[in-house]
Amino acid sequence: MISIEQALKIVEQQEIERKTSDVDLDDSHGFYLSEKISSPFDLPSFDNSAMDGYAVSGIYDYYEIVGEIAAGDTSEKSLQSGEAMRIFTGAKIPSNTTAVVMQERTNEEDSVLHVDERISEGQHIRRQGNELALGETVFAPGHLISPASVGLIGSLGLNRVTVFKKPDVRIISTGNELIPPGESKSEGQIYESNSYALQSALNRFGFECREKTHIKDDFSAVKSGIAEYLDRSDVLLLSGGISVGDYDFVKQALEENGVTQLFYKIFQKPGKPLYFGRKENKFVFALPGNPASSLTCFYIHVLPLLQRFSGAAETGLQRLSIPISHEFEYGSERPIFLKAHVDNQTVSILNRQSSSMIHSMAMGNALVFFDGPKSVPEGEIVEVILI
Ligand SMILES: Nc1nc2c(c(=O)[nH]1)N[C@H]1C(S)=C(S)[C@@H](COP(=O)(O)OP(=O)(O)OC[C@H]3O[C@@H](n4cnc5c(N)ncnc54)[C@H](O)[C@@H]3O)O[C@H]1N2
Ligand code: MOO
């Protein structure tokens, strides 16, 4: 059995062959850049007005209005001292402009502009290059393209970017007791829910499940199912059948498919019997069947691999240190991820923590991590992982 840190390190140290592709800016959201992007020009590339109002030259109480400039006007315009031009937000500033005055602070009469405020030099002018300088590095490879990143890339005039391809992910659930939701069930059967939870967790973080299937606890069916799916996948997720029971065939079936074990069993709760292996550039996680174990293992161990495979510079979920809203005692030696809810800067640990229960995870939005037995009073700062 290895520690959580050792398991995370093993995932982090995997050499991964990544592929890249050129995508339209419209389709780039959620990918990680494989190229560096530098600014091809100063941004903004010309001095422009931050307000609707008047560009004025010199500092006076009144000016002669000599013209108008609208946003998008590309002509060269110039002011003499004592002159003003009507100007609109985003329009190019005429040369010799001292400041822009908001129209609310002025009165206009017979082409004479009266100013009701003390003008300070440079006010309401957005200077060339004050957001980005020509040649400045905007994004390093590995940057996750967010909506704001898409906006910034577009404002640099780029309509295509080179990104890392996402892994092809497939899911196999195993277990004789499982039947699909929607069918009527008999005593002794339960509804298969892990593959649905895993698929939606994939989607939530920008990944796709290409295919999923269910296989009964039959060694040769599990072995041939793994062979077929592994062949087509970059990352294969299995659920169930990875513990020590007589019908837990997954580990042996992986071995017989040429998968090399990188770790099996982590000193953690839930998700102790997690398996991680690889075959060439393909990775396999066999997740414990208990629903909360399978999803917790996804958040803590699978997600960082998927992110690294996709070229991410930073992996894992956001962590916070915030006060707990109630006292709590935890007795077991195994480091634990507890289902919890973060609200107004405090965190509450939820009831129904068993690995077999998904209810508290469905009600929560976080995991509280304790690295061993703890007795914490209300208000104690605890480590929280947002899920
Ligand atoms: N003798 C031991 N027994 C168990 C140990 C152990 O160390 N020694 N570990 C326990 C722990 S911890 C876990 S976690 C589970 C993991 O077992 P498996 O990965 O082999 O999972 P299964 O036995 O197939 O199923 C466990 C549980 O989860 C339900 N399940 C399975 N798949 C799904 C699914 N797709 N959707 C919903 N629910 C699912 C299944 O019915 C079982 O109730 O082993 C312990 N045992
Ligand atoms: O590790 Mo198991 O996931 O505790 O139930």
Short characterization:
It is an enzyme of class 2 (transferase). The protein is of the alpha+beta class and 387 residues long. The protein contains seven helices and 27 strands.
Notes on the protein architecture:
By secondary structure, the protein is α+β, with helices and mostly antiparallel strands. The chain folds into 4 domains: 4-16 and 166-309, Molybdenum Cofactor Biosythetic Enzyme, Chain A, CATH 3.40.980; 23-43 and 131-164, Molybdopterin biosynthesis moea protein, domain 2; 48-126, Molybdopterin biosynthesis moeA protein, domain 3 (Beta Complex), CATH 2.170.190; 319-386, Beta-clip (Beta Barrel). It is built from 7 helices and 27 strands. The chain has helices at 4-12, 147-155, 194-204, 219-232, 250-256, 291-309, 359-363, and strands at 20-24, 37-38, 48-49, 53-56, 62-69, 83-87, 99-102, 106-109, 112-115, 125-126, 137-139, 160-164, 169-174, 178-179, 190-191, 209-215, 235-239, 260-264, 275-279, 282-287, 319-323, 328-330, 336-343, 346-349, 366-370, 374-376, 381-386. The strands form 8 sheets. It has a 6-stranded mixed sheet with strand order 7-4-6-5-9-8, with no helix packed on it. It has a 6-stranded mixed sheet with strand order 16-13-17-20-19-18, with helices on both faces. Helix 4 (219-232) crosses helix 5 (250-256). The chain is elongated. 35% of the residues are buried. Residues 269-272, 288, 290, 293, 355 line the site of molybdate ion.
